User: Fold this.
Amino acid sequence: MPAWAYVNGKFVPFEEASLPVEDRATQFGDGVYEVARIYEGVPFAFSDHVQRMQKGASIIGIPWPWEEAELQTMVDELIARNNQQDGIVYWQVSRGTAPRSHVFPPQADPNLTAYTRDYPDHAAAWEQGVKVTIERDVRWLLCHVKSVNLLGNVLAKEAAASKGGAEALLEREGYGIVEGGSSNVFIVKDGVLATPPLSELILPGITRSYVLEIAAEQGMSAAERYISREELLQADEVFFTSTGVEVMPVAAADGHTIGSGVPGPVTKQLLAAYKERVAAACSTAPR
Amino acid sequence: MPAWAYVNGKFVPFEEASLPVEDRATQFGDGVYEVARIYEGVPFAFSDHVQRMQKGASIIGIPWPWEEAELQTMVDELIARNNQQDGIVYWQVSRGTAPRSHVFPPQADPNLTAYTRDYPDHAAAWEQGVKVTIERDVRWLLCHVKSVNLLGNVLAKEAAASKGGAEALLEREGYGIVEGGSSNVFIVKDGVLATPPLSELILPGITRSYVLEIAAEQGMSAAERYISREELLQADEVFFTSTGVEVMPVAAADGHTIGSGVPGPVTKQLLAAYKERVAAACSTAPR
Assistant:
């Protein structure tokens, strides 16, 4: 358990960090959140996370009173207080606390909470790849907002875990495999990358965009298009991306071996390049 | 503000009632809730609410350690402490508090919270009917679970309110008007009632089921079937039902006058019969 958390302007002992029962995230899922990876005491791609959060808040009409620099200062202090050299920082903005009514409250200040946590090592998974399952996507139609309405994701990832899967790939009727329960999905076929296009049905993943950028820099072809279940199962390589797992090779999906069942060359190349980018950004960041 | 709330076995001053930042309702919408109307100090249809909540918890795999009688005792004490003769009682069960991870935590006790609140008078609205709007249903596909993943409902009801609507009727692609943002919907055409059938796309409303029961007792014909936007706009009467608003006549939808623009005879008859049922149940309930 971390020592410190942040709640609306104050650093408080983590075990005392709480929100009122009428906080709107708690009662309506009426909030947005972000998770950034901390490497060497530095939150990677923090600015990208803040921008995404601000955009999501704007889409659902949550007021945004913060400058990015204020949030950076808050997170930096949290990391320092918790001496969190490696791990994650989670922060959440809800629409605020108000007598319960679906309609936006006439007066409410957003609730901002944050804390850091350790993050598990993925070395073995990167080395061997992981198993995933394909689950029905039952989520709402505004998945581009990183809101705390995550019960659909929770149920899919639990279904996957109950079958030994490290991730649930979500299949949306009429669209194919759209993303993972907490990741974006890519396939490689004949040297060409494919990942579903940005739309209201998928989260605009920050790692996803870095991977596309790296792929372009390395001269790989990449298509943003929907992927069918059949294509995925017959791909040479499959991987998923997220802030936490970075670039994670898939060894098998729903019991079907992907490619040769071990991480493929494109996946390994992208993971290595992503790690280089992280190392460069975090080792040179101002402290 | 009520004086008292309930949090995990204890009655606490309302302003101190809170949940940890890692409560799963707060971070994932991973919880279920109920709202019962209190009339004359008695929560109406309490048993129906508890049964629906228990069923919803079971669908999403939240353990259920309570007997109904324990919850009844808790709610009765809360009502007595707050001297809540008229109003609502809200209670919520989340999967518990655990280090954040989508997958169900290996160990977590559900968090049970509750409080009462005053409830506004609807006399004028019952008399005149209300305006509603029709909004796109962007919610997830398990709307039969009364979970706190309500952001789709929030956005629809806010969109309605911004246009002067008291409720948002939700139109799901391929299904028509499925229900309201926090209610079930009925139409009357040529003396026949219609309301969408129970499915994973609508909440099994308790008031809805009482209204269907009353309609049958009074010899009305009622069909459980989907309703198109056109049918709704051309209906003789439209009303919506919920624990709070009971049976609410619709005077206009998306600017189209419904019937003669005033509450119709079937709606008035059902509202009166519902109120009689409430009065009978609550005035004879043991204290």
